[in-house]
Specification:
By secondary structure, this protein is an alpha/beta fold. 26% of the residues lie in helices and 18% in strands.
Length: 280
């Protein structure tokens, strides 16, 4: 089978948003992808959560080890390899080319950045590009992720405190910050992003801002609510059931529409009964 090679040095979320394009070209050519990920490239964001030796980087070795199981689980991906400064074989597609193609990266659709540089990589953004094993048996739970970047200051996550079985995926500092809105939220810790995707795939609703976890939910096309960042609205959900919110009022109505089946604001929503379940 033909192999198509790709290279990226970007954030894990960028790699996940490139999957629809990778999937499309591999299926079109009856091929499989080999993806090379360059480690420890400096991030221009000083408070970037990924660090290597005290410096902000886009992908560390730890993040690569978390990401690789998810990528190689896809039928159209043959292998995922890392490199640092050493040379790699000639590649077919540079997934970072959009960074030098004079695009306004604070707008548009992140999922289409790649095909702006390579028109032949035009993806199908309405179909899932991630498949995971069906290892999670529960379904009546909510998963939340709110990264420290791209937060909308008009949002209030305390609306979720009235629901049982709300789980957070993400780093400890972000969990503690969200717990101020909902002291009952549970930190769901996973060994890698493939296991995270398995949990997201079976959730009743995923809620998040513009983060790597939302990128996974987007490629799975699960029911999802996006907290969109007004100053860089470059995440545009497509396909499946989704809500895009910019205010707490929109956010609260999206939650009650999905979870309670009615169009009300948070003051009119009845509190659900408290029942404990575990997911796994």
């Amino acid at each position: 089978m033909e192999t198509i090679t790709f290279k990226t040095k970007g954030n894990c979320g960028d790699a996940i948003y490139a999957l629809p394009s990778i999937k499309m070209i591999c299926e079109k050519r009856n091929a499989q992808a080999v993806i090379y990920i360059q480690l420890n490239q400096p991030s221009d964001i000083a408070n970037h959560p990924v660090q290597n030796e005290g410096k902000a980087v886009m992908v560390s070795r730890q993040m690569y080890d978390m990401l690789r199981p998810l990528l190689v689980a896809q039928s159209y991906v043959k292998d995922v390899l890392y490199f640092e400064s050493e040379s790699i074989p000639n590649i077919d597609y540079d997934l970072d080319r959009f960074r030098v193609d004079n695009l306004n990266l604070s707008s548009g659709n992140i999922s289409q950045w790649i095909n702006n540089s390579y028109p032949e990589l035009r993806p199908n953004l309405y179909a899932p590009s991630i498949r995971v094993a069906d290892n999670i048996k529960s379904e009546n739970y909510i998963i939340v992720n709110r990264s420290s970047r791209y937060q909308n200051l008009f949002f209030d996550y305390s609306q979720l405190s009235k629901y049982a079985d709300v789980y957070f995926v993400g780093v400890e500092s972000e969990f503690k910050a969200l717990r101020l809105h909902n002291p009952n939220i549970i930190h769901l810790q996973v060994p890698n992003f493939c296991k995270m995707a398995e949990y997201i795939n079976k959730c009743q609703l995923f809620i998040g801002n513009q983060s790597m976890a939302f990128a996974i939910a987007e490629q799975l096309k699960v029911p999802r609510i996006l907290e969109q960042y007004a100053h860089a609205p470059n995440v545009i959900p497509q396909g499946g059931e989704y809500f895009v919110c910019h205010t707490s009022e929109q956010f609260n109505k999206a939650i009650t529409l999905k979870l309670d089946g009615k169009d009300t604001d948070s003051n009119q929503t009845e509190t659900k009964g408290e029942t404990e379940t575990s997911i796994g």
